[in-house]
């Protein structure tokens, strides 16, 4: 209460100073000042609540109890805090990764794969093609285009083994494209339903 | 991989409790269903290949009826973070925040500080604004003096996945996906922020790292 009283008193004093200030000016100055004062207020501190780099990383690799913790951890600190937990969850999800030397189609074992994923930052190329995965090695993780079937790619990397041939019923959700056509021009996303 | 191991894996998965919606839709208890809930993030080369496009979607899984009443929150800053030197710390940010029906954009610009807290770079000379497109209207697009294209408003959710079947697999009531699958996100909308930036404002060549954050006013 006391703090509020001080805040309100300060606000009243400040606003009366502004009012007095305005009343001393002629009409032109007055309207200029009013315009400045009535512009949008962008002040204040904004605190991290949610974040995403690559699709579905928090959803798939972070345990329920840790999801808010992950969203509140800045990317430069994610690997140290989460890589071990990601690796545990990956091996639970796809037990083959627990076998020595088992790898995904990118040639990554469980530690390497989760080491890549734990820092949830999307790599984006400035030089050309931008895609999550298109089968061409040099294009892998060069961005994320709207039409990229990112879930099937992630399922393949989790369940598909070294050559995408393992667990075919788990490594493709068989939904390969969006329910509306994307636009070729800005803003690219389809109009709403 | 043996099938028994897969079943063990799915059982463990259920214990871990991963029954939440991808890609980032309602991904965590504290953000789920709030105006700060990011649903997705995209970054790709534009129609003009000298440009990069960033898409940040919030408030996913909107039905058409719900879309009419949905709006961006003036207390939620959507910040696209760009790392140009590989340390996963933002070197540039693009900030978007709504005020009175207009989405204001600041950057790409060096942030005043990095990390969990942000201040809006309102003194930045690299800025622009676009009227938020109302539901049912054609997309309103603006281009800033620096050549940055901007859009904000409801769009079809571009994400697609048979999430319902995934949930059944995780729950142990199904052993694999259907073929064809069913897109759980068909017919749903999101609130989108789309910004297209000349690459030269970000870097010359190579790769950058990018992610999006929703930050709530203290």
TrEMBL record, chain B:
It comes from Polaribacter irgensii 23-P. Keywords: Signal. Residues 1-22 form the signal peptide. It comes from the Bacteria. This is Molecular chaperone DnaK. InterPro entries: DUF4331.
